[in-house]
Recover the amino acids of this structure.
């Protein structure tokens, strides 16, 4: 078997066999298939696609290139959640402890942010002492003891994905459904959970820019999960504006704490309660939205989050401290009307320039910097009323404020934003 023949076969739109896919992935991890051939193969997939069966074989071939975590020592149905990325996405920080507060175990491996998208691990590392790298045995024991753990992905899981993702990143083959689906699901399958909730973001701040592509990706991943016996549900969620009221690692921790105490933005609280309801149902626990929300208001979800922070070495006093920056600059509305748009991509990139995100993986983060919005899409605003505050350790120039204001869209009539666009099960 030769790699060049398989590249040509896929280039010509033909279907690869399971054996051919396994051979190619094993060879790539072993180093016998070089980067230049695998990049050609990825580009062939980009243009010609893959059948559902091919994507399934690719996913499981990738799973086989690393360890698979055995969570059978944890009683009950173990649930996991994955987001395809966005701006201001602090959902996991709230959702994981909220679900765990109903005695449903949440064993989650998360990632870091890159570019305009934020990473859960970066937010957690803004808490003094929080350890995202713990041994597998400790990870399992913690979920047994308190019901929840959020850590970084083990280097021993899905070796093919690490190599292939780095290659895709520099060969313009990131945004193709077969490779996105196999990347996400290989990691989720290897992580060992029994049930998976997929948050597939849609809009200008997401990888999937339109509902049709997002729907296709979601259905592909749901089918992959079910094919290997994992209960899987996907929700399509709006990423045309940032999630919640903040962008930035420490700011998002503080917003999460507000919501975990029954405060914070009502629409985001409802959105997270709806996601929690779905995750609980995956574990055969049926609760109403009111019953789920009660765990935000009575402190049970917050208690679970604090238990997780302490178990992973975090300082609870530091967890609750306010942001510390050199500059806090308010931005005001230039006219009266209704907020009709807060483009997630533009504000994500603005926050990245403040230091809240990475342009490349090696960039250091400023955990304290970011943006807090006083107004969101659909709300009315008066001229000269505060719309947002910029938190920064670099001086904010008039040009930066003008750039910020240029992204704020104010219209004459109210629009009704919707977080969950569709559920695919």
């Amino acid at each position: 078997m030769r790699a060049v023949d398989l590249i040509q076969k896929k280039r010509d739109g033909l279907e690869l066999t399971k054996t051919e896919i396994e051979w190619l992935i094993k060879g790539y991890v072993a180093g016998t298939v070089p980067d230049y051939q695998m990049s050609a193969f990825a580009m062939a997939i980009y243009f010609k696609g893959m059948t559902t069966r091919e994507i399934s074989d690719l996913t499981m071939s990738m799973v086989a290139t690393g360890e698979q975590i055995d969570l059978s020592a944890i009683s009950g149905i173990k649930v996991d959640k994955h987001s395809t990325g966005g701006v201001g996405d602090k959902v996991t920080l709230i959702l994981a402890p909220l679900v765990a507060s109903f005695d449903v175990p949440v064993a989650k491996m998360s990632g870091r942010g890159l570019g305009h998208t934020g990473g859960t691990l970066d937010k957690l590392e803004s808490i003094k002492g929080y350890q995202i790298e713990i041994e597998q045995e400790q990870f399992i024991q913690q979920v047994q003891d308190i019901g929840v753990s959020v850590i970084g992905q083990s280097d021993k899981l899905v070796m093919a994905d690490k190599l292939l993702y780095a290659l895709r990143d520099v060969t313009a083959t990131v945004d193709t459904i077969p490779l996105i689906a196999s990347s996400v699901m290989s990691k989720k399958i290897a992580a060992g959970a029994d049930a998976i909730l997929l948050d597939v973001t849609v809009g200008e701040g997401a990888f999937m820019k339109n509902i049709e592509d997002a729907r296709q990706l979601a259905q592909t991943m749901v089918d992959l999960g079910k094919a290997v016996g994992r209960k899987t549900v996907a929700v399509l969620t709006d990423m045309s504006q940032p999630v919640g009221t903040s962008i930035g690692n420490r700011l998002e921790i503080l917003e999460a704490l507000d919501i975990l105490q029954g405060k914070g933005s009502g629409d985001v609280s409802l959105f997270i309660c709806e996601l929690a309801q779905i995750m609980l149902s995956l574990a055969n626990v049926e609760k109403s939205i009111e019953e789920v929300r009660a765990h935000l208001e009575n402190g049970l979800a917050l208690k679970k989050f604090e238990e997780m922070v302490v178990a992973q070495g975090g300082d609870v006093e530091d967890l609750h401290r306010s942001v510390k920056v050199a500059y806090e600059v308010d931005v005001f509305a230039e006219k009266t009307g209704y907020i009709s748009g807060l483009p997630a991509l533009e504000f994500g990139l603005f926050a990245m320039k403040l230091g809240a995100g990475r342009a490349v993986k090696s960039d250091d983060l400023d955990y304290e910097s970011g943006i807090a919005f006083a107004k969101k899409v659909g709300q009315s605003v008066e001229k000269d009323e505060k719309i947002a505050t910029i938190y920064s350790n670099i001086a904010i120039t008039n040009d930066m404020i003008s750039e910020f204001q240029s992204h704020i869209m104010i219209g004459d009539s109210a629009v009704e934003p919707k977080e969950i666009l569709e559920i695919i099960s």
Q: What stands out?
A: The longest strand covers residues 195-202. Residues 79-318 form a domain with the Pyrimidine Nucleoside Phosphorylase; Chain A, domain 2 fold (CATH 3.40.1030.10). The two ends are 39 Å apart (CA to CA).
